[in-house]
Amino acid sequence: MKRNQPWVGTVVLSGMLVLSACSGNNGPAEAPNAPTTPSNQENTATEGNKEPVTIEFMGHGNPNEKKIFEALIAAFEEEYPNVTVKYTSVPPGEYSQKLTTLVSSGKAPDVFYVGGSEFYRFAEAGTVLNIQSFLDQTDLFHPDNVWETALNRYRYDGSNVGAGDLYGLPKDVGPWAFVYNKTLFEEAGVAPPPAEAGAWTWDDLLEAAQQLTIDENGDGKPDQYGVGAYSLESAVWGNGGQFIDYDTGTVMVDQPEFYEAMQYVADLSLVHGVSPNQEAEQALNAYTRFLNGKLAMFAMGPWDQPAFWELPFEWDIAAWPASPNTGETATWLGSMGLAISAKSDHPQEAFDLAAFLSLDEDGQRENYQLGQAVPNLIDMARGEFLEQDKAPASRQVFLDIIEDYGRPDVPALSKDTQWIDTFWQDASKVWNGNMSAKDFTAEIQPKMQELYDKGNK
After folding, report:
1. 324-350 confidence digits (pLDDT tens)
2. What domains does the chain contain, in order, with CATH numbers?
3. φ, ψ of residue 189 in degrees (nearest 5)
4. DSSP label of 174
5. Which residue, among 320, 384, 313, has the nearest Cα to 175 in the 3D structure?
6. CB of 184 within 8 A of CB of 293?
7. Could you read off the pLDDT of 254-306 as tens digits, one per residue?
């Protein structure tokens, strides 16, 4: 999963790329030429007189991800010498439209990234292949050794996501962690945030951020900030609030637990001045400030490791600060999936690639060693991944998020995301101080509810 959300004020706008709904039948898509006996799978896996096959794979990401997947694909082609993979890496901002165009024209890649609402719509439309029959016959798949929370993102029972057969495999599971510049903390003599959930609260965060916000040239504007792009999801969930109750379809942003958390995040900038305001963020975003050593606390996913390994200062990750009202810690847990086109002419080879990238031990090892993701394989994640001799030293935090206090990103169970997109688009009224969080959420809740009901019920 990549950082493909925009930065607005002090908030990480979590949400996957949104794809337009695709036409197709309403029922689950079964695999053309799907294997029906173990011998079929064995014949496919047997090296020897196999016809050369070329399959297309499309993903998105920054140059680091492209290099990593080029290496993974080379390893796959070495293991499956009759298969050539034509890999296309699309800039994240262009991916949704390109995939939608390819799908609607009947030219979808054999394997492609899919996540969140796009997976829901594609499964419902029959665009992606039901791969359960392939999984039932491969010795790569041991469901007890793959994160359940990741697998459930790609299950579909004909009506709902989260149950039924698998229509995709997790490319990754993306714990959104709290990262800090260890060198800045040490130089300022400030105790760093702990890895243990609940050991640090919003109050501790503010105290540390105040000590780490510095106006170096005396012009009245901070040159170094204590915290940037603080996750609204973390604040809301930790405070006992939620964006929506998916069981009832009720938008919950107008509840005190929500708007009090939102106001806390806004006040980091508006009242306390420890986080860049909108003007400062537009001049230099929080990600760049952190890379430049001018931001003490930020957020990161495992995919950020390759860039962070090159930084000239020490850094580590910690648990997100807990709400002092509840003592609870929370953050979002993203995921991007690998889906196979229901129209693929080579479903077995496409499955082999998706399985290699998601489940193969060698592929997963190369993936985490290159800094792309936490392993999908639980035993590897709890074993050699934790023993890796690279930052972050507290990499157990990634697993704590997956196993304990991470939640699916807000739009993950929506078919249509206009309701939450509208919230993020209008939230600047709070970040710039034009409205209180209480007034803003009271105003926007009916609009969000109407959009959710229209697109998802």
Report:
1. 999 999 999 999 999 999 999 999 999
2. 20-174+335-395 (3.40.190.10), 177-332+411-456 (3.40.190.10)
3. 70, 30
4. E
5. 320
6. yes
7. 999 999 999 999 999 999 999 999 999 999 999 999 999 999 999 999 999 99
Res. 17: pLDDT tops 90: no
Q: What is the largest CA-CA distance in the chain?
A: 75
The pLDDT value recorded for residue 28 is 36
Integer angstrom CA distances of residue 343 from 28, 126, 127, 154, 339: 13, 10, 8, 18, 12
- The letter for the amino acid at 171 is K
Q: 231 and 320 in contact (C-beta within 8 Å)? A: yes
Q: What's the CA gap between 352 and 360, in Å, rounded?
A: 10
Angle at 237 between CA 236 and CA 242, to 5 degrees: 80
Residue 34 has pLDDT above 70, yes or no: no
State the DSSP code for 407. E
Residue 392: cis peptide before it, omega within 30 degrees of 0: yes
Residue 23 has pLDDT above 60, yes or no: no
Measured between alpha carbons, how far is residue 272 from residues 29, 167, 181, 225, 395 in Å? 54, 47, 20, 11, 31
How many residues appear in the chain? 457
pLDDT in tens, 213-239: 999 999 999 999 999 999 999 999 999
CA distance 373 to 366: 10
Q: Which residue has the tokens 């949704």?
A: 96
Alpha helices in 336-417 (DSSP H): 347-358, 361-369, 378-380, 396-400
Q: What is the pLDDT of residue 207?
A: 98
